[in-house]
Design goal:
two-stranded antiparallel ribbon, alpha+beta
């Protein structure tokens, strides 16, 4: 399959093929309706990327804690998953002296540094969990962005897009060329350079 793009969007059939890779590992429940997806977006204050929305419309992986259950999941668990990327950066601000070079000079006090970091992080793009600590940009106007593995500020590419990610994570991997170009994600791409 060619990379996902605005000109080459993920189709429902493509999404079903991706989900078929999981069928031996997890239960795939009925796909989410447009109304259900709209409800998730309204409740949690983000909008799925087009390919993520297509995937969840084709089927909802469940049955293991690693998959966010957008239909019947525990609200506290979903809130924690959505907060994890920002919380991870804040953890490293507090415990590992991380400070982004575009932010104002770091205050001397830890609490002051956390307060300043929070104000900057409130403006960064939302990352939505796909599986475990793998995240995709929440942006309905962008498609084909990379899937990132995010643990605090240890952030790495895990796929050039959702299809490439499924190949790497769930089998059938096709090596990513060394010179592969990844779409940039404001703020989060800083950790990948």
């Amino acid at each position: 399959m060619t990379p996902i793009s605005r000109e080459n969007p993920l189709t429902s059939q493509d999404a079903q093929a991706l989900l078929a890779r999981l069928s031996a590992r997890v239960e795939i429940k009925r796909g989410m309706s447009e109304r259900e997806l709209d409800g998730v977006e309204e409740r949690w204050g983000f909008r799925f990327a087009p390919e993520h929305r297509t995937l969840l419309g084709a089927g909802l992986p469940t049955g293991r804690r690693d998959w966010p259950d957008w239909r019947d999941g525990d609200p506290e668990d979903l809130a924690a998953r959505l907060a994890r990327p920002v919380d991870g950066v804040l953890f490293d601000v507090e415990h590992n002296a991380f400070w982004h070079p575009d932010w104002d000079p770091r205050p001397a006090g830890t609490q002051d540094a956390l307060d300043v970091a929070r104000s900057y992080l409130a403006k960064v793009p939302v990352m939505v969990p796909v599986y475990s600590h793998r995240y995709l940009l929440a942006d309905p106007d962008r498609t084909g962005t990379p899937v990132l593995s995010m643990r605090q500020t240890d952030i790495v590419y895990y796929g050039t897009d959702l299809v490439d990610y499924f190949r790497h994570e769930f089998g059938g991997a096709v090596p990513t060329p060394e010179d592969q170009q990844y779409a940039t994600i404001p703020f989060w791409s800083y950790f990948l350079d």
